[in-house]
Write a structure and sequence with these properties.
The structure holds two protein chains of two kinds. By secondary structure, chain A is α+β, with helices and mostly antiparallel strands. Chain A folds into three domains: 180 residues, Aldehyde oxidase/xanthine dehydrogenase, molybdopterin binding domain (Aldehyde Oxidoreductase, domain 4, 2-Layer Sandwich); 171 residues, Aldehyde oxidase/xanthine dehydrogenase, molybdopterin binding domain (Aldehyde Oxidoreductase, domain 4, 2-Layer Sandwich), CATH 3.30.365; 263 residues, Aldehyde Oxidoreductase, domain 4 (2-Layer Sandwich). Chain A contains 17 helices and 32 strands. In chain A, a hairpin with a 4-residue loop joins strand 8 and strand 9. Chain A is globular. By secondary structure, chain B is α+β, with helices and mostly antiparallel strands. Chain B has two domains: 74 residues, Ubiquitin-like (UB roll) (Roll); 72 residues, DNA polymerase, domain 1 (Orthogonal Bundle). In chain B, a hairpin with a 2-residue loop joins strand 3 and strand 4. In chain B, helix 3 crosses helix 6 and helix 4 packs across helix 5. The interface between A and B is large, with 89 and 81 residues.
């Protein structure tokens, strides 16, 4: 596999000479050379590959290449998905080369990263692909050796026929095997026989990361490539009326300034075609710095856009949606939410007779929880490379779901899908943000306009202030208790801008006789989308805080209280469509109780909080231990119990849970994106507070439930209950319930954080 | 013409002297291991060494680097064998990996100046490096491990 070498574009202003060693050394290779999965040495790979199926190629020298089908954004699928194939293939992990697969849904399946689905949706197909390839290799050997296939065994990339003492590498039969039709229904291994799966393997791209190889979309480069940026309106609800680019065009390195319409009027948007603005003012130049400078010279007139219309496509045909033109301000949004919360809402689920139960209750407890918009703040800002010609389009960059954006590109560029190639680079974070591919559509249109390869880059300010945010949420929870303090009714009414978070069929639905869930929403021009565990990330804060408070009112231990409810849901479930498995839910609570030493006197020095949540088919519980440090609450320790079925790569999975815990603490304590007259008030990390080193816990202990259930999600499930556990521990620490996120907002009015003590 | 010494090689660049070192490295020289994260010295993704000191290349004018020794993640070690790189691999620190070059470059200065840093020392030195994936715990462990490796290696 000879990598395509693209020499760094030699622009006129660059006259680089290498004085020290002779020769021009500024060429760079895209992508970096592949290395073996387990021994990170660069190797020259041979040219001749025998393809056994879309995922597996083998050389005669027995080098086995596995294509990772799914976009990598830090969840480690580049390693875990090939592990699943290697398991059934009986390949030697040390001799495997892993490569990012092309976008090819025929050969490589659905190819999207989202909904914690990567491992879950690929588990079966990848096992089948590995097992089928192994079968083909055995059959090739059986034919050549003239022995029954049943007598051909495999181990670590080798074929054996014990009776005759013959053996051969996979590679020696790869060519013959590649001509054998791919079998179906090959028997898969029993979990007890797993050798690769369930053993920790190192990130196959680890070496490239720590040596700074070009891996990410923003690192992508091609000969003659220009840089583009978009000058967005200063606020949601604004549009430009006119602009004067003469100053910008005089700046060095600037090629062009122009406007573009992203979607033509009437374009039917799919669910992931969300974009912040449709009318784009674009600056194109030679280098990033030159374009950044030229933007400052643009003179642009903006005005409120007023109400606008979007056309949404969908299964039930297209529909027109009015996007309100108001320039929104956070305080007004909060007032509006309070108003809406009093109005009748859409009923999402009802069990029993909650109205009567509340009327007859001895005690009613009502609490309201609020949470702000959140920016994704992927460390790599949005960017994409595009080279569009009349005949075809090449795009490369960070994207969670190429298959969702390709149809949009095809329509907009008026090219057939097979003329559009989307290369998936490693992503510097995703968290849901990169499911919305507007930025590659933008890059494609810009490239088409300037007739050159272009990389579109969002600055951090562009990225943060024109986000596709986590919505702003509110929810009011009510509980009715009888004279014995027994929970007789539960009511949740949730709302949001522009959507609510309520999952009506989740716990404690099913555990309470009289139950009501309602939802409402307020339309907005502020764009929103998936953010690590959408909706759940708010519910697990609000609902789990509320349950904690209920347990206190009932004089019950918060874990015991949840277990009682789960027992009820298991033995005599209320209603239909309860989404969770009460046994698995209870098991993680029991596990975290045991591992955290819940109730042990030696843990009294901690302010402890617990929460558990089910989402993305997995179960997660945390116990959070808070102490005061430098006058501020500090999460010193966290104990986590997770049930996501079979864990493919235990150490990497542990890393993911640790990360989710830290990310959760950060967002719970500090995360907030607010608006003033439509403009985001946080535009960079000096105003948007992210968790930092000194605020990460000293210890996070992760425990996985051991079972043989097919794997379910892990990227998202550990994240939501962190919010609830933090809120409940904060209550113990501050003696005050925390209903509004971010919980430490008052303590830290300024987003500023002490700088690194070194001088920069 | 600015003469720059980057990773022990000399480059002559005809470039606006106000260009941040970050963009000179990434766009002009083609060393893209140094990352853009915020552009305002808040996230640490762009940390490089200037005469051995950790600097934010996004706010360091390229003219300031002229005549000085610049080391980027690509030049941190000859054979990818800096104790921090080895420790990072050993503990499989990275998730998305985008911030890790900056993390390692900050940690390298710390380890040079403080052979056996405490957690507090690490907090202080690394506070300016953001990781959205939340790998802070492993970074701490990896710095401790690298310190151990460094001490063993120097004996």
């Amino acid at each position: 596999m000879e990598q395509s070498k693209s020499t760094h574009s030699r622009r006129s202003f660059l006259r680089s000479s290498l004085l020290a060693g002779g020769g021009l050394m500024i060429s760079f290779t895209w992508l970096p050379k592949a290395g073996f999965a387990d021994t990170p040495k660069h190797i020259d790979l041979p040219e001749q590959w025998n393809e056994l199926n879309g995922y597996i190629k083998i050389t005669t020298d027995n080098v086995i290449k596995i294509f990772n089908p799914n976009p990598e954004f830090g969840q480690n699928v580049m390693t875990s998905l090939p592990m699943i194939i290697a398991e059934e293939l009986e390949a030697d992990w040390q001799k495997i080369v892993v490569e990012m697969g092309p976008h090819d849904s025929v050969k490589l399946g659905p190819q999207f990263t989202g909904g914690s689905n990567s491992v879950r949706m690929y588990w079966k197909p990848l096992r089948e692909a590995g097992a089928a390839a192994r079968h083909m290799l055995r059959e090739a050997a059986a034919q050549t050796w003239s022995v029954p296939i049943e007598e051909v065994t495999t181990k670590a990339g080798m074929l054996y026929h014990e009776k005759s003492g013959r053996s051969a590498t996979y590679g020696s039969f790869a060519s013959k095997a590649s001509g054998i039709p791919i079998p179906k229904g090959v028997k898969l291994k029993e979990p007890k026989d797993f050798k690769v799966v369930r053993s920790s393997k190192k990130n196959v791209e680890g070496l490239k990361i720590v040596t700074g190889k070009p891996l990410f979309g923003i690192d992508y480069k091609q000969e003659g490539m220009l840089i583009a940026m978009i000058q967005h309106p200063p606020a949601f609800g604004m549009k430009f009326t006119s602009f004067d680019a003469s100053g910008a065009l005089k700046m060095p390195g600037i090629k062009d300034v122009f406007t573009l319409k992203l979607y033509e009027d009437g374009f039917e948007q799919g669910g992931f075609d969300t974009r912040t603005f449709n009318d784009l003012l674009v600056v194109v130049g030679n280098t990033t710095w030159e374009v950044m400078n030229a933007r400052k010279k643009l003179i642009v007139q903006w005005e409120p856009a007023g109400d606008t219309k979007d056309t949404m496509g969908g299964r039930n045909g297209k529909r027109e949606v009015v996007v309100p033109g108001e320039l929104e301000t956070t305080s007004t949004q909060l007032e509006k939410m309070q108003e809406y919360a009093k109005k009748p809402a859409q009923q999402l689920r009802k069990d029993g007779d909650p109205e009567t139960a509340f009327k007859n209750a001895a005690q009613v407890i009502e609490r309201t929880y609020n949470a702000p918009f959140l920016a994704h703040n992927c460390m790599e800002p949005m960017n994409f490379f595009a080279h569009v010609t009349e005949e075809k389009a090449l795009l490369a960059g960070p994207l969670q779901a190429p298959g969702w954006t390709e149809p949009t590109l095809a329509k907009i560029l008026k090219l057939p899908a097979d003329k559009i190639e989307i290369q998936m680079t490693r992503m510097g974070g995703g968290f849901g943000r990169r499911a919305y591919g507007h930025y590659l559509t933008e890059a494609a249109l810009i490239s088409k306009k300037v007739k050159a390869p272009v990389k579109l880059i969002y600055t951090r300010e562009d990225d943060m202030t024109y986000g596709i945010y986590r919505p702003m949420y509110t929810a009011t929870y009510r509980a009715a208790l009888d004279e014995n303090k027994k929970l007789i009714a539960f009511h949740v009414k949730g709302g949001g801008i522009p959507e609510h978070a309520i999952h009506a069929n989740r716990f404690p639905a099913g555990a309470v006789d009289n139950y009501l869930a309602e939802g409402w929403q307020i339309p907005s021009n502020i764009t929103i989308g998936a953010f690590r565990a959408p909706r759940s990330n708010f519910n697990a804060a609000a609902e789990q805080s509320f349950l904690d408070e209920l347990a206190e009112v009932m004089d019950k231990d918060p874990i015991d209280f949840r277990l009682e409810l789960l027992k009820r849901a298991k033995e005599n479930p209320v209603g239909k469509n309860n989404e969770y498995d009460a046994d698995r839910y209870a098991a993680i609570l029991k596990l975290v109780k045991e591992k955290s030493g819940w109730g042990n006197p030696e843990n009294k020095k901690y302010s402890r909080g617990v929460a558990a949540y089910f989402c993305h088919n997995s179960y997660a519980a945390h116990v959070v231990d808070i102490v005061m440090k430098n006058g501020r609450p500090f999460v010193e320790r966290v104990f986590s119990a997770i049930d996501c079925g079979i864990v493919i790569n235990p150490d990497a999975a542990t890393n993911m849970v640790e990360g989710a815990v830290i990310d959760g603490i950060g967002n719970a304590f500090y995360g907030r994106l607010s608006h003033k007259e439509g403009a985001a008030e946080q535009n960079n990390f000096h105003k948007y507070r992210m968790i930092r080193h000194s605020e990460a816990p000293d210890k996070i202990e992760v425990h996985f439930v051991q079972n043989d259930i097919d794997p379910t999600g892990l990227g998202e499930p550990p994240f939501p209950p962190v919010f609830g556990a933090v809120a409940n521990a904060l209550y113990k620490s501050t003696n005050k319930r925390h209903y509004d996120q971010p919980y430490l907002d008052q303590l830290l009015q300024s987003g500023n954080k002490p700088e690194n003590k070194k001088t920069f | 013409m600015l003469k720059l010494n980057i990773n022990r090689k000399v480059y002559e660049l005809d470039i606006d002297p106000d260009t941040p070192l970050l963009w000179a490295l990434r766009d002009v020289i083609g060393l893209v291991g140094t990352k853009y994260g915020c552009g305002v010295a808040q996230c640490g993704a762009c940390v490089v060494h200037l005469n051995g000191e950790a600097v934010r290349s996004c706010v360091t004018k390229v003219s300031r680097a002229a005549g000085k020794q610049v080391v980027t993640i690509e030049g941190l070690s000859e054979n990818n064998d800096h104790p921090l790189q080895k420790a990072w691999l050993e503990l499989d620190v990275s998730q998305c990996g985008y911030c890790q070059a900056g993390q390692i470059m900050s940690a390298a200065v710390l380890l040079r100046e403080n052979k056996n840093p405490t957690d507090k020392d690490i907090d202080n030195a690394m506070e300016g490096n953001i990781c959205r994936c939340g790998t802070y715990l492993r970074i701490h462990k990896a710095i401790h491990l690298a310190a151990e490796m460094q001490q063993k290696g120097s004996k």
